Amino acid sequence: MISVAVVDAETPGNVGTIARSMKNFGLSELLLVDPPELDPDGEAYGFAGQAREDILPNAREVSFDYLVENYHTVACTATTNEDDSSHVRYPAKTPRELADSLADVEADTAIVFGRERVGLTNDELERLDEICSIPASADYPVLNLGQAATIVLYELRELTVERDQHPEDIHVRADEAAVEGLHEEFATFLDSIDHPEEKRHRVRRLFRRLVGRAHPTGREAKTLRGVFRRASGRVQRAENDD
User: Which UniProt keyword terms apply here (predicted)?
Assistant: First the structure.
């Protein structure tokens, strides 16, 4: 199981934001080390969304020692060592790399976030098992605590979310008969507008490549066929009127 731990948070609102992100991405256990007061009528519960109903009221206050002794721990920090001259903040994994490595970890894991202004101290980092850092601009890599937690938990979603809100088959490609029918209608359209004979083969090939990359759905192919058919018919009627 993957849990989230927040060490010495300064503002209740960030705790609420993290609880909401946990709810978004399928996590349930929130561990708090030296937390601020979380008033049910205050900003923590106001920022928590539906997490105010379960994650936030069930959050457990624990010691830092408890985290170290009972969990495989991942420290999240913006500042890392550039090389292996010091291992306090090195090596650091990106959230995506962390997701790949945690897939093989069977132990209970705690993703540990630090204080809003200074994060986790070096003494705390030395006691944690892994380092995770979000790639950001070198000019200003420090993210808001709630934002950082949301990014990390999003990248871990394949380990924590059984089913998301998106349908499994978002895009179903049209069958070959429908696609070929579209190409035939396009060829008829080229004929109707009297496109130069010597250029038609090349244009049809370009159109085939375009459709091949687009992978249109059945409805899209049918709609485009209808557009070309109507355009061809309008051209034909205009010629007959002349």
Answer: Methyltransferase, S-adenosyl-L-methionine, Transferase
